Amino acid sequence: MEKMPKWADVVLIPIISLLLATILSAIVILAIGEDPIEAVNLMVTGALGSTYGWGYTLYYATNFIFTGLAVAVAFHARLFNIGGEGQAMLGGLGVAIVCLSVPWPHWTIALLAACAASMIFGAAWAAIPAYLQAKRGSHIVITTIMFNFIAAAFLNYMLVNVMRPQGSQDPATARFPEAVHLPTFQSMFSTAENVMFRGAPANISFFVAILACFVVWALIWRTRLGYEIRAYGHSETGAVYAGISPVRITVIAMLISGALAGLMAINNVMGEAERLVLNATEGAGFIGIAVALMGRSHPFGVFLAAILFGFLYQGGAELALWTSIPRELIVVIQALVILFTGALDNMVRIPLEKLFMALRKGSA
Amino acid sequence: MDFFLTLVQVLDSTIRLATPLLLACLAGLYSERAGIFDIGLEGKMLMAAFFSAAVAAVTGSVWLGLLAGIAASLVLSALHGFASITFRGNQLISGVAINFLASGMTVLIAQSWFKQGGRTPSLFGEGRFESAEFPYAIGPEDAELTGRPVSELMSETNALHLAYSELLSGHSILVYVAFLMVPLTWWILFRTRFGLRLRAVGENPAAVDTAGVSVVGLRYAAVAICGVLCGIAGAYLATALQAGFVKEMTAGRGFIALAALIFAKWRPWHAMWACLLFGLLQAVALRFQNIDLGGVVIPVQVMDALPYILTVVILAGFVGKAIPPRAGGEPYVKER
Amino acid sequence: MTVPAIELKGISKAFGPVQANKDISISVAPGTIHGIIGENGAGKSTLMSILYGFYKADKGEIWINGQKTDIPDSQAAIASGIGMVFQHFKLVENFTVLENIVLGAEDGGLLAPSLAKARKELKALEEEYELFVDPDKRIDEIGVGMQQRVEILKALYRKAEILILDEPTGVLTPAEADQLFRILDRLRSEGKTIIVITHKLREIMENTDTVSVMRRGEMTATVKTADTNPQELAELMVGRKVLLQVDKVPAQPGKPVLEIENLSVTDSAGVERVKGIDLSVRAGEIVGIAGVAGNGQSELLEVLGGMRPGQGSIKLNGERLAMHGPGSDGQARRAQGVAHVPEDRQREGLIMDFYAWENVAFGYHRDPAYKRGLFMDNAALRADTEAKIEKFDVRPPNGWLTAKSFSGGNQQKIVVAREIERNPDLLLVGQPTRGVDIGAIEFIHKQIVALRDQGKAILLVSVELEEIFSLSDRIAVMFDGHIMGERLPAETDEKELGLLMAGVAGEAA
What we know:
CATH topology of the largest domain in chain C: Rossmann fold
Largest sheet of chain B: 2 strands, antiparallel
Number of strands of chain C: 22
CATH class of the largest domain in chain C: Alpha Beta
Low-confidence stretches of chain B: none
Number of helices of chain B: 14
Radius of gyration of chain C: 24 Å
Number of domains of chain B: 1
Strand order of the largest sheet of chain B: 1-2
Shape of chain B: globular
Strand content of chain B: under 5%
Radius of gyration of chain B: 21 Å
Distance between the termini of chain C: 56 Å
Oligomer: heterotrimer
Shape of chain C: globular
């Protein structure tokens, strides 16, 4: 017997959780002596009030779509990939190598190559934890955390000792050549008389991210591989019975997850920074966790949640600019969202289930 | 003598750096032995570091600071317990949330409280933990008396006296607390009723429940002890190792502690050795940067990454398998 | 009249929409053995869990020795002198026997004195009740029979006067079960009150003083055991006349379909579970494997079904099957013509959160019939589901419900439909009627016999001797990884099989 309708599970619970997170955030803002209504106003104007704001919101959202999808795919196989951050860092390395080592004639070809490289690098970074989980039973949460730190150290080494141009003090690669610069929204949507998205970093990667949503949706719900991933995620013993190899699914799901996280690099490294810097990922790998939890691991949900977090990030930056509220407010909101949609899910769910049971009894 | 002095100094620094790891590692040990995974050690330490430094700065008393740090860490522990024990949520996700909560809240509160860009004012005098000088050890007092720097006095004395002065003497009281916690934890775990029940609840909570002992009560107790120890660890960072709180000052120590816990296979004495090993790696990295081993240069980043690499190797089971408590990570649901 | 040791008055308990106990009243005299019998899911275990403070009753009262007693938790139950031996033992595997007995009943904060005291008291208890165990052995080093003794000693150490045992013989050999009942008899003679929950009529008839029958959450009768008979109890359990025998014509066995030679299986912990067995199943024949749970039958099925590797030789229609690596997994087995109704439908046979129509493809999801281009052909799959739901009378007939929304019987019908409709050469069936209501049992048995009559080979594993007897054309008994012997159902009886199941070898078949 289902305890409540599916729409309540998919829509109502995330919305209530979000509401709780919002209320708590408002209390936090009040507590540090600021006006929450004013703060929301500032955030909305800053993030959504102009094409410039949208340009940033969608730029951030693009990052979060990739990392959110990465976490979501792993979730379907009941794997918790906390390693999105490290995988995205490695994806950045792949993009940098591709962009700097080949004289690309046109950005389109460069983008395809960068996509491939970032996915391969991200997947490779997920491969070892995946293999260890599948073959040796090493807890993937711990190994992916460890791999984040190892990735940071590795990237640090690469940027300081290997890829830094001679004479530069900055731990970063050289700028990418003009030919691999991706079209920004500004260049795509502006007309002669009306400049839109001026100076905002949103770029063509956003459409790659949307494409990724469709591909992931089809993969998970329409293909046999997706069927196997979901079946394995629900029951490992069931998977073995059905002849679905846990080792194979664990590795494949993590490779896809790592590839998606790595793919983020076409946005932040190739599309925005146009070189690889330290800490290029800025925690986007972790935000993917919140995004996937809120989006209920469904690509459409991930898309919406990513836009929401994009809004929060841009709005938060505006807030930090105009008020004394630091950007870390967003980290708090992110924590609250993870808390309510993830860890405290039952706190919201159990009363709702009781409510629906009571309603059903009442109508029966 | 020079080499020996350097060695002793590195070992001294090892002890200082191992202390927060050890406290956090033992904190995790209590929690995970009771079946509650805790990847939120980092967050609890960070929160405690901030509140201990903030209260110490405001009141001028490091002891009040310590209490505040412990209280702050306990609040997060309660949240973790609430999510993972009462509401049977995902313990890993709860830990992730707690880390972010601490990371954001500390800066947010620091900014609105002190307006120094997310840090607390520097601590001095009563606001910091002083180092304890043992009798006959060389310390700042001797330096004052002779009018010569401590390091000079150190380099002149014999090896035994040097080791005594650097390694045993001259640490903050929290260092001694941390190392005393090791035998104490062993004793509690394996020689007391509480320890028996704690281990049982991490292995098979149903056995504890049907024996008429509250699973929820035990697990909350474990999580609370974890909170207290993380609180001390955080306070040590901000009021003893350093003089004040800075943004993200835990710098992954919570995760290294977690790594040490796995490395130690959830046993107290092994935890101490693991933390000392990881402390040594940090101390060496701090002192030498790139190490030249007869032509082969080991970059500092390798030292940074070594604790994590070692943990992965251990987890992979190539060097003895690490088997966590059987009921770890699983919320307890009554069933027949 | 003596005061009853336990009296339950009007106990009701619902789990969400399911009414597990409805207005149940029962009274047990001290110094007696009282049986509670009922089908799976009749609410027996729920009732006892309420008595042990595991669940809280929605309504009703509990009276212990004439005192109205509130039992909010296990602590209170223990304090009222109630001890419980659960079906799945509640022991800490890596603790010693002594530590398990002491856990929760320690004296003072330090362990050493508690353990010393317990060691002494344990010795006294052992002698009083002839319950010998080695206090310093770890639980994972001793067998299930011993573990059960530890559970009983745990209760006695806590001064239990009332002992509840939930399906105590499920994991025991008939000999071990007899021994258990001797222990219980002894406890009764010492004045203890004992409640035994079981679904085995024989145990009730042989060992209890009074018996209560439960059906669908209700108490249908309480009678003196001496005044009733198995047929009457069975009818009370089921609520109508039951056929204990399956109608079937004699088998017409053909050529061998499955030939097993010297098959061994070692589990992931390195324990050898199946130790070099030979077995064959012919076309048009049902071979039943009898045995106490845990003697290698599950592993045998799992190797044949491609769920784990093995050594030796398995031939299907004369072709040797791979037993590890490529060609040995469940997908390969299905392609080779083996269908498998697994022992545990909830953990293996179905994905409980998948829709019924998704489950109809489970294991066959790579079948070209369900494929369209790059994707799965969900429309074809749903049409197929509708046909199977109708043919196997799955209720409610709705493919868009998740597997967990169906009753146990209907879940099993979905699995059986999926496997039988594949028209396999060999059907593996594990515990086909575990947790299934009588109506569905009859239906499923008929389907299995019908498949046999089409000339297919069927290998049945069941721990229910009755089921083995009524379905099998030939019976093989497994004990400790060996096949102890093969018998024809007409030429053997429960007693002989019981001896074989306990490892007492008969003459080779």
